Amino acid sequence: MTYPAILISAPYFSEDEKARIEAVRPAVLAGTPEARAAMPEEARLAIRAIANKGHKPIDGATMDLFPNLAVITQFGVGYDAIDVAAATARGITVTNTPDVLNEDVADLALALMLAWSREIVKGDAWVREGTWAAGRELPLNRKMSGAHVGIAGMGRIGRAIADRCAAFGMPVHYTSRTAKDTPEGWTYHGEDVVSLAQAVEWMVVAVVGGDKTKGYLSREAIDALGPRGVVINIARGTCIDEEALIGALEAGRIAGAALDVFYNEPHVDARLIALPNVLLQPHQASSTVETRRDMSIAQCANLKAYFDGEPFPTPVN
Length: 317
Ligand code: 8YV
Prior knowledge:
Elements: E1 6-8, H1 15-24, E2 27-29, H2 33-37, H3 41-46, E3 49-53, H4 60-64, E4 71-75, H5 84-89, E5 93-95, H6 102-117, H7 120-128, E6 149-152, H8 156-167, E7 172-175, E8 187-188, H9 193-199, E9 202-205, H10 219-225, E10 230-233, H11 242-251, E11 256-259, H12 270-274, E12 278-280, H13 289-308
Parallel strand pairs: 1-2, 1-3, 3-4, 4-5, 6-7, 6-9, 7-8, 9-10, 10-11, 11-12
Bound molecules: 2-keto-D-gluconic acid.
Pfam family, one: 2-Hacid_dh
Domain D-isomer specific 2-hydroxyacid dehydrogenase catalytic: 47-317
Domain D-isomer specific 2-hydroxyacid dehydrogenase NAD-binding: 110-285
């Protein structure tokens, strides 16, 4: 009996995605550590690639279950759930799907900013629940256009967000390891996120996830934002000191937050859920039909490259 050469770590989003992977090589779904450990030894020996999705850890012990594993292809740009050092030590290549999702993630960042400032969610309920028809006007909300915005992390996604903010007439400030080639007037704050926070009302977190950016938006930076400060996070929950954020929101030291990602997602801290000045989303920034298709194509291009003995299009190690 021939066993599949690809292990997929989470169910497919669509039949197309399934067909695309199966067109490279037959695949088997083993979505939990228990399911992987329960695979017969021959089946584990046959696995040469993992098509990974989601944010559950892939550590060295998981890799060791598959002695012939050569590549882990992440469905997504962020690969913080994969222990890349452990992969490198075992000669395993890790790949991701950069760029194809920049526009959607940036769109969601702006959607969060607009929805938060213009009370879109509350306004919808105002109409549906008959409050408007009963003669009550929605309380005035807050102007976004023209306000100073801080982009914490001017990578490819940060840049796509900044370009959109600039179109709204928002002066752009940013942090990054190095100064970027930007339109005139954008202000570089080095890696000083506190200085960035002092200069802006809107703080958009767009740094990569992982150990190096844990708590990047620190307690000090959150407090430096001040009472009109609004925090947007489309990066990773770990990039913000979430305890400090909750404390600042509860005490009214900042105005609010709109968050697509969380420390312990999908289990969102009950204190965040209880706060009226917080807008919550289920980690959906790249979740459009079009972009998920392009991410799947990019993931499969890496899988195919491995089985064809070609160079990987987007390796990370
Ligand atoms: C996806 C993401 O939700 O690309 C990323 O890093 O966080 C998202 O686009 C995720 O990768 C799905 O596996």
